[in-house]
Amino acid sequence: MTKSGLKQAQTKMRTEGVDPVAIDVFTRNYQTLASGKSNFIAENDLAPLENVVKMNEIRVSTKDATAALKKTVIVKLNGGLGTSMGLDKVKTALEVRGGENFLDIIIKQTLHARRSSGATLPLLFMNSFRTRDDTLNYVEQKYPEIKTGDFPLDFLQNMEPKLRADDLTPVAWLENPSLEWCPPGHGDLYPALYGTGLLDQLIKDGYEYLFVSNSDNLGATPDAQLAGYFAKTGAPFMMEVCRRTTQDKKGGHLAIRKSDGRTILRELAQTAETDIPAFQNIERYNHFNTNSIWLNLPALHKILKENHGVLGLPLIQNQKTVDPTKPDSPKVIQMESAMGAAIEIFEGAIAIEVPRTRFMPVKTTNDLLMLRSDLFKIDDNYSVRPQVENLPKISLDDRFYKMIADFDQRFKAIPSLIKLESLTIEGDHIFEETIEFIGEVKLKK
Question: Are the C-beta atoms of 77 and 213 separated by less than 8 Å?
């Protein structure tokens, strides 16, 4: 059934007009999946990553930093709908504060960086087929000045069929055919840039560096010192990493592969159950991937051309149901790859430890509550800054606060959290006036 399944999937992709490079990547991943070969990265094959340079230790002249920024392009990964919070539109349309959403802040951060540095700094969104229309309609109408020359405002992440878990054929779901498709993870950045011809265009216009980050991480601003340092090293790839804490035990960490000395990224989904205690050992593996990376464009083009757009990133299998809202719908496998996993592909790739202020993603309403509160301040340059050294741990009752509509209905006023150490809310509570939480707070009902 697997040969038939692959042929069916390839035909479905061609019929839908999916780029041939993306089909080649899908084919390689499908063959890996069908082979039954384990995608686990064994603990015995790894050693800890040591001697990581810290951002606060680098020194680059203003002249060199600005020169590097003038050759830099910004890409924001913007393919998520925020379905885990009950959103049915692009996640970055979610309000942060004062009527402004993620898109507003990202664009104003970029415009400020352009004014202060004199750099062109083209801003491109990598949208999915589900987020493109919402994003472009909003940005084109409100910020026509953000567009740079002939560059598009976005490029489209590829899509691939979800596969039935029982026979690896493309799933059919007549109730909503769009749910038959999924994006192939943010590792699709590379074939998408290559297959669309955008990579060629950027290099032709004189750009040498690409800074990529998640659109829900407002801490990932285009920093001139980082751009200058990356240019100075001559490295083809640089990953921003942070120190792991107990809250980061489940996130992907960096390690050294003993067989060739390459730095690699290991995700939890690539870890055997017996190796999970070692995976979660934050003393042994003390750096995690922030998913903010810097790429040398000529080096990226060279390696993609040599491999016909197929980097061969490690496969990540996600088992879900075809309709995420219906647990009894057919079980499917979504094949994905991680953008950061490319660190092992580039010889001479490096990591740099950045402060936690450059990593503040919003994945849940717990994160959103902190971002909307006085724990963070948005400066005149639209940098989002935490006002405390250690952010509190927040746990809101999923029954009443997980979905954004429920959250907004209950938090009619955002409490002061600046003196908070931890907050646990159990049961249904409504906050109609601004109150102050101090120390360890637990509400029950």
Answer: yes
**Partners of 443 in the beta sheet?**
425
pLDDT tens, residue by residue, 102-129: 999 999 999 999 999 999 999 999 999 8
Q: Where are the alpha helices (DSSP H) in 39-197?
A: 62-69, 102-117, 132-142, 189-195
Residue 264 amino acid letter: I
* Nearest C-alpha neighbor of 151 from the set 104, 202, 107, 110: 202
**Residues facing residue 439 across a β-bridge:** 420
Q: How far is CA 103 from CA 57, 142, 192, in A?
A: 31, 10, 22
d(C-alpha 382, C-alpha 385), whole Å: 9
Class of domain 365-443: mainly beta
Q: How confident is the model at residue 325 (pLDDT cuts 50, 70, 90)?
A: confident
Query: In whole angstroms, how far apart are CA 169 and each of 128, 163, 204, 329, 334?
Result: 23, 5, 41, 15, 12
The 8-class DSSP code of residue 97 comes to E
Domain(s) of CATH 2.160.10.10: residues in the chain: 365-443
Rounded CA gap, 107 and 292, in Å? Answer: 17
Fold of 2-358: Spore Coat Polysaccharide Biosynthesis Protein SpsA; Chain A (3.90.550)
Helix (H) and strand (E) counts for the chain? 13, 23
Within 10 Å of residue 435's Cβ, how many Cβ atoms?
10
**CA terminus-to-terminus distance, the chain:** 53
From residue 160, how far is each of 26, 170, 269 by CA, in Å? 7, 9, 20
